[in-house]
Design brief:
single chain, about 350 residues, alpha/beta, Rossmann fold, 2 domains, 5-stranded parallel β-sheet, two-stranded antiparallel sheet, 13 helices, 9 strands, globular
Length: about 350
């Protein structure tokens, strides 16, 4: 018993020392700094203007920079409302923002770098942010057009999760008279910094815990199965999938209808300004795993584009070509344990989009 008490005492003593060292490291040697993410009373949320700091996603911690518009960029720079060269606005959600990778390795960053290397330069502005969907695409683009921002084309990267976003939280972004119950209007959203999290003071401990949990789940197959075959924001395209309450209050069809209506509002707005619209679609790991080649995500926006778009970019075939050729397609194209693009996945999107925008 005495040996047990000694062992426990030594264990807790070592834990206390670890936590003290972790706190000092997190607070003074490697502080996270302010977040680039801000709220918007006009389009829900966005990014701080002229930000130069860091962001994190999972185990990744990377430099995060925005320009004077609050769009993710390679360097802090002043972006004039009008440009002397051709300008293309990109918008989408976390995939377009380039979450988990440096800007230079995201497909938006690759397009911008390639556009600036051309004799006839093309500027790409990346207005994409985590959790955007058609309602916010429309609201944000309308806002910047009203502010005098000028661009020659818009490419919307429609994510599969848009339907879930429109069916759930985006139903709270309409005019106050139309809001469902329990919605908080944008103007009443709380301001100020995000709430304190344990990882803000003990980053190494949280990372060690998550690493252990993550590896345990991955080796047991739980995480892999969830990513590939049971992801709540992807399963609306899979016939017979059990979606539970993941699409309340509007349901899948309500989310689809709302997505189309908001995209139509965007198409009409751009048409009134003489700005062509292109829509690009791409699969999540679930669509690749379950062989959803003729996905409803493709058919909906392909049909929409026959009436409203300059072009439709279907990235499904390019992704399925990698899957068909490589057994390790998931680890090639996506961040391990996640649905977002890896560096190679971003490069694939860049290559396919570049075929259209760089004739």
């Amino acid at each position: 018993m005495a040996k047990l008490r000694t062992a426990l005492g030594l264990f807790f003593y070592c834990c206390a020392i670890w936590l003290v060292l972790d706190y000092v490291y997190t607070a003074y040697l490697a502080p996270m700094g302010p977040s680039p993410r801000v709220r918007s009373a006009i389009y829900s949320h966005g990014l701080a203007q002229s930000f130069d700091g860091e962001d994190r996603w999972g185990f990744a911690r990377y430099r995060f920079v925005t320009n004077s518009l609050g769009f993710r960029d390679a360097v802090v720079r002043d972006v004039p409302l009008t440009a002397a060269t051709r300008r293309i606005l990109l918008i989408g959600d976390s995939f377009t923002e380039g979450i988990g990778v440096p800007f230079e390795q995201s497909f938006a960053g690759l397009l911008q770098a390639a556009g600036q290397q051309r004799a006839d330069k093309i500027e790409f502005l990346n207005a994409g942010v985590v959790s955007y969907a058609p309602t916010i695409y429309y609201k944000k683009i309308k806002h910047w057009l009203n502010q005098g921002l000028r661009f020659d084309e818009v490419i919307v990267f429609s994510d599969i999760s848009d339907v879930a976003d429109e069916a759930t939280r985006n139903s709270c972004l309409d005019d106050q008279k139309q809001l469902p119950k329990n919605c908080i209007p944008l103007s009443a959203a709380p301001a100020g910094p995000p709430e304190w999290r344990l990882s803000d003071s003990f980053s190494m401990s949280i990372r060690l815990f998550n690493l252990f949990r993550y590896q345990l789940y991955w080796f047991s197959g739980v995480t892999q199965d969830q990513v590939l075959n049971n992801h709540v924001h992807s399963d609306w395209t899979i016939a017979g999938a059990a979606v539970g309450d993941g699409y309340n209050p509007l349901g899948i069809e309500g989310g689809v209808q709302r997505s189309i209506e908001s995209m139509q509002a965007l198409a009409d707005l751009l048409r009134s300004r003489g700005i062509p619209l292109t829509i690009a679609v791409y699969p999540h790991p679930m669509q690749l795993s379950l062989d959803d080649r003729n996905s409803r995500q493709v058919t909906i926006w392909q049909d929409f584009c026959t009436r409203n778009c300059k072009a439709f970019i279907n990235l499904f075939p390019a992704f399925f070509a990698i899957k068909d050729a490589h057994r390790d397609w998931y680890l090639r194209l996506f961040i391990k344990g996640d649905v977002h693009f890896s560096v190679e996945g971003n490069a694939l999107v860049y290559q396919e989009v570049a075929r259209l925008v760089f004739p």
